[in-house]
Every structure is written in structure tokens, then in C-alpha cells.
Design brief:
With 476 residues, this protein is of the alpha+beta class. It has 15 helices and 18 strands. Bound molecules: adenosine-5'-diphosphate and magnesium ion. Magnesium ion binds next to loops.
């Protein structure tokens, strides 16, 4: 098997979450279910109508460019990209050709070529039963950001990491929900293989894979193309084309030969003036960039001394990481020696578990960071055992009551009182002669068994450390 090296570049389209469309004031609502509701003569391409630029969309793209370290083009303009397709009402798409809003930048070590702004198309709905196609223009004219990378990526894993990090940054910037399954973020992969032949680097032809709408599809299509192109290159040349991804068969399929820029007959949009980006108070836009995921990860690693995988879980959601941070600072105030890991576990497994049982979102929960910290501090102080803590958390989640109140009302206090525990231990020893005999023969598992029995009797409220001591004392 010859040693091929993959070369991969990405083109990523992102629907921006502005209130209105890119060139008119029709609502931009991706949740609209009724077809052709959010339309007007402008986005339907009626003759005689004129576009106006949505400033919010321009600002969003500039903020993304700033977050990714790109240069904001001092002068920018829109261009017409001409092609015919039934979901494109004007017969052309307003896009940006030679003066994109953003030049350069980088993410995850991948150099960015450009970021520009254009408009989305409508959507065709095919009904194979009646052999008809219907068109819905609700999406036509929705602001679409396109980011193009240099071909710096070398593997499926790097491509997915890049796309995930970009998605997270878009969410931190609140410019898009960037949900791939909903088509709000769509990835196109460009991929070619290359190898050294007698000291000369031979670069194969690149293939484009369009409309990938999950991270799995991005990874799967790259893995598949690496194998397919290597196979083709054994005996011939890779054909330059656009392919699609069959998510069921897990293969890429040929769609059409790739078009060249000249096919689109780009020319400057005559209905929109070129403009200088300085008219947009760039200083203010810069100030509006929040702490971004990479910086926040660094800070969390240092401040909380958590392992990498845990930091990643927290930072994967801006609200979750903010909640954690607030709770951690409260916990520190309550008890400087408390364990941050306990807080992490109660937040990311127990509380998230409760949220997942219901249909509410994280921002709707009734528990405040301070109350969660309070619960963790009660655990750390040995006032409640884990089973009791879980019951209290559920109650907090359902009612919004504070942990101390629930603890008192339900009598879930941990039992650490020696004489009370000793009574239970003596009962268990009496009731389980076989286990006692086993333990005396050296079977340590029997001790765990008896502690479990005692815990049951105490309804989970016994302090396991103290119980163990008392058993050992009573069994010698
Ligand atoms: P085209 O002119 O064919 O559209 P571009 O050079 O504009 O190609 O690049 C489009 C995308 O293809 C970019 O994301 C770029 O990184 C990627 N790309 C360019 N050359 C290669 C290559 N040899 N192999 C894989 N991807 C490439
Ligand atoms: Mg485009």
C-alpha cells in the first residue's frame, strides 16, 4: 500500500440568527413550519425590488473574524453569483467574491483563507409518490456566513475537531445556534491525496464533498474518500467532481463535475454600494467578544485544577461553565477545603441527569449555583450521605427549595453517632452468622456485604467510614 498523505480544506456555511433576513425585513425564523410565510417581494426576487444590507449580519461576521484573529477588510462589497436552480428566486445569489469581510485568521492551528457573507437559498421538497417538487422560500435570503480554510488539515479527526471548535465559538458569540442536524451549520470537505514518487511530490486531484450535516458524516466521508482515492490512484487519476455522502450506506457518491468560478459569471452587485467597514464602530465590536472557549479552558485548568476531560465537559456549554464557576466560588466561600470534583460530579452527572429526564433547558432550572454549592458543602461536611444528597437534589430540582430546608424537613441527616451506628452493627452481626464466619476466614468482601446491609437499615444515612471502623472493632 503506497503511503498517501491526505490534504483537506473545509468550507463551512453558517446560518446567522439575526431577526430579519440578509437583504429585506422578512423574519429570519428557522423554526417556521408553515411554508412561504416569511417572504416578501425582495426575497422572492420580484422585478423592481431593491436589497438593503442587514447590518446585524455584517456585525456578526466581523465579530467571528475578530474572534478568529482575522483581518477585517477595510473595504468590502457584494457580488452576484449567477446560476439557475429552482430554489434561487432571483436566478443569482448575492455573495462576496473578491472583497470578503474577513481575510485570514486561524483556528486549532488551521489557517483561514477568508470569511464572507451571502444569502441562503430556499428549500425544495420532493414528493416521490406524486413525482412533484414544491419550493419553500422561508429560508431564501437568510444571512449565511461562509468560512474557507486553507488545506492545512491532515485527518478526519482534525477536521471534526476544527468544526466542533468553530461551532462552540459561534455559540459563545451568540451569532448562530450552529446546529448541524438542523442545517444551520453545513460542512463541505475538499480532499486530495499526495505522495512522494522518486523524490517528487505528486499531488492528486481534489474532490469536494457537499452538505455534510453531522460530525459523523464529516468523519465518515473523509475516511471513505481516503480509501477510495488511494484505490483509484493505484491505476489511474482521481476525477475532479462534487460528491455527496450517503449516511445509510456510509459511502460518498458522485453528484456532478465541479463548476469553476467562471461558470458563475461573478460581477459586482449593482444594487448595493461597496462600503468601508470602519463605519461600523469596530472598537465596540471588539469589546463585545466574550472570553472564548480556548482561553476559558486554560483558565479553568489553572483555577480549578481539574483534569482535561472534565474541563472540556464544562466548556462545551457556556451556560454550564458559568454556572460551575459561580457555584465553585460560592463553595470556596462556604468551605475553603471543599472538593471541586464533588461539585463537578453533582453538576455534570446528577443535575444534568435530572435535566435530561425532563424537557427543560439548562437556563430554566430552579436551582441556583449558590444552592448547589450549599448542597456540596453539606456533603463535604459529612452532614448528608450521597444517597440523601441525591434525594435532596431531586427535591431542589422539582421545587426550587434550598438544601438545608429539605434536609431538615425530610430528616435526611447523616448518622455519625457512634452508639446509634453500633446498635445497627450488632444487629447485622447477629443476623448474618455466615458472613461473619467468612470474614473471619479472611474474606474481606463479607465486610462490604455487612456494611451494605447496615446502610440499608439506616436508609443510606450511615457514615460508611465510621461504620467500617465499628464493624472491625466488633468482629475481632
Ligand atoms: P477551487 O478554486 O477549486 O474552489 P480553492 O483553492 O478555492 O479551490 O479552495 C477551495 C477549498 O479547497 C478550500 O477549502 C481549500 O483549502 C481546499 N483545497 C485547495 N486545494 C486543495 C487540495 N489540493 N486538496 C484538498 N483541499 C484543497
Ligand atoms: Mg458560497
Amino acid at each position: 500500500m503506497p503511503d498517501y498523505t491526505p490534504t483537506i480544506g473545509l468550507e463551512i456555511h453558517v446560518e446567522l440568527n439575526t431577526k430579519t433576513k440578509m437583504f429585506c425585513d422578512s423574519p429570519n425564523n428557522p423554526e417556521e413550519k408553515h411554508p412561504n410565510t416569511n417572504v416578501c417581494p425582495v426575497c422572492l426576487g420580484h422585478p423592481g425590488t431593491l436589497p438593503t444590507i442587514n447590518k446585524e449580519a455584517v456585525k456578526s461576521v466581523i465579530r467571528v473574524g475578530m474572534a478568529l484573529g482575522g483581518e477585517i477588510n477595510p473595504e468590502t462589497k457584494f457580488d452576484r453569483k449567477n446560476y439557475f436552480y429552482p430554489d434561487l428566486p432571483k436566478g443569482y445569489q448575492i455573495s462576496q467574491y473578491d472583497k470578503p469581510l474577513v481575510l485570514g485568521g486561524s483556528l486549532n492551528g488551521v489557517t483561514l483563507r477568508r470569511i464572507h457573507l451571502e444569502e441562503d437559498t430556499g428549500r425544495l421538497l420532493h414528493d416521490p409518490k406524486t413525482n412533484t417538487s414544491l419550493v419553500d422560500f422561508n429560508r431564501a435570503g437568510v444571512p449565511l456566513m461562509e468560512l474557507v480554510t486553507e488545506p492545512d488539515i491532515k485527518s478526519a479527526e482534525e477536521a471534526v475537531d476544527f468544526a466542533k471548535e468553530l461551532q462552540l465559538i459561534l455559540r459563545y458569540l451568540s451569532v448562530s445556534t450552529a446546529d448541524m442536524e438542523k442545517g444551520q451549520m453545513r460542512v463541505e470537505v475538499n480532499i486530495s491525496l499526495g505522495k512522494w514518487v522518486k523524490g517528487v511530490w505528486k499531488q492528486g486531484t481534489k474532490v469536494e464533498i457537499k452538505n455534510l450535516n453531522s460530525f459523523g458524516a464529516v468523519a465518515g466521508s473523509i475516511e471513505y474518500e481516503i480509501k477510495r482515492q488511494a484505490e483509484v490512484m493505484k491505476t489511474g487519476k482521481v476525477h475532479q467532481e462534487t460528491r455527496g455522502w450517503d449516511d445509510i450506506k456510509k459511502v460518498t457518491v458522485s453528484q456532478r463535475s465541479k463548476e469553476e468560478a467562471q461558470d458563475y459569471r461573478y460581477f459586482p452587485e449593482p444594487d448595493l454600494p461597496p462600503f468601508e467597514t470602519a463605519i461600523l464602530n469596530l472598537e465596540e465590536l471588539k469589546m463585545s467578544i466574550p472570553e472564548l472557549p480556548a482561553a476559558k479552558r486554560d483558565r479553568f485548568r489553572k483555577e480549578f485544577n481539574l483534569e482535561e476531560s472534565k474541563v472540556r465537559v464544562l466548556i462545551s456549554d457556556q451556560k454550564l461553565s458559568d454556572f460551575f464557576e459561580d457555584a465553585a466560588s460560592e463553595l470556596k466561600a462556604l468551605n475553603p477545603n471543599s472538593k471541586i470534583v464533588t461539585l463537578f460530579n453533582y453538576l455534570t452527572s446528577d443535575l444534568i441527569g435530572l435535566i435530561n429526564e425532563t424537557n427543560i433547558s439548562f437556563s430554566e432550572i430552579k436551582i441556583s449555583p449558590e444552592e448547589l454549592a450549599h448542597l456540596v458543602s453539606l456533603i463535604d461536611q459529612g452532614k448528608i450521605m450521597s444517597r440523601g444528597a441525591k434525594d435532596i437534589l431531586r427535591k431542589m430540582f422539582e421545587t426550587g427549595e434550598d438544601p438545608e430546608g429539605i434536609l431538615n424537613a425530610e430528616g435526611l441527616h447523616a448518622v455519625s453517632d457512634e452508639s446509634e451506628l453500633e446498635k445497627v452493627v450488632k444487629d447485622i452481626i447477629k443476623e448474618n452468622p455466615a458472613a461473619v464466619a467468612d470474614y473471619k476466614k479472611g474474606k474481606t468482601a463479607s465486610l462490604q456485604f455487612m456494611i451494605g446491609k447496615a446502610m440499608n437499615k439506616l436508609r443510606g444515612k450511615g457514615n460508611p467510614g465510621i461504620l467500617k471502623d465499628i464493624f472491625e472493632r466488633n468482629l475481632t
